[in-house]
Amino acid sequence: MQPQVVISGCSGGGKSTLLVELQRRGHVTVAEPGRRIIAEQIRQGGDAVPWADMAAFLREALRVAAADLEDVAGIAAPAFFDRGLIDAAAGLQRLCRVPLSQSLGESRPYGRLVFLAPPWPEIYRADEERRHGLSEAAAEYAHLDATYRALGYEVRLLPRTGVAERADCVLEAIQCG
Length: 177
Fold this sequence. Notes:
Layout: E1 4-9, H1 15-24, E2 28-30, H2 33-44, H3 54-72, E3 79-82, H4 85-96, H5 100-104, E4 113-117, H6 134-150, E5 154-157, H7 163-176
Helix pairs in contact: 1-7, 2-3, 3-4, 4-6
């Protein structure tokens, strides 16, 4: 079985665009839990959104990310995740003071190599689902970088290049690593 590959990092850093390109190339991808949760909560009129109840949002992100891992278990090819379980646990740690061990236990569900999208002011855009500014996104990025490294993952920064070059970088790294 191939590793599960996380694309994490700064909000608005081009992760979702990269996942679209990887999917276009025929790879298994898993959409960001947070975006899916927000869309569903807005549709239902729920409060588990970052601007209303951050703790409920992050707990739901943990649940969705765990279900995503189960959904791709046993796939012979690598699966690429737009964020995941560790992102939600890191958010709970940073914003709600919930220890990582409480959210993750000893779980290290992804492959050793993680890709982080650094802050990229030129492409950052707030929208209906991403209401925070670049400074909050950069703080989130710094915490994710530190968290993945503390958990023993090898972190590689995605270059600030076009999406095709980013996809090539990721695919070359997982074939060689």
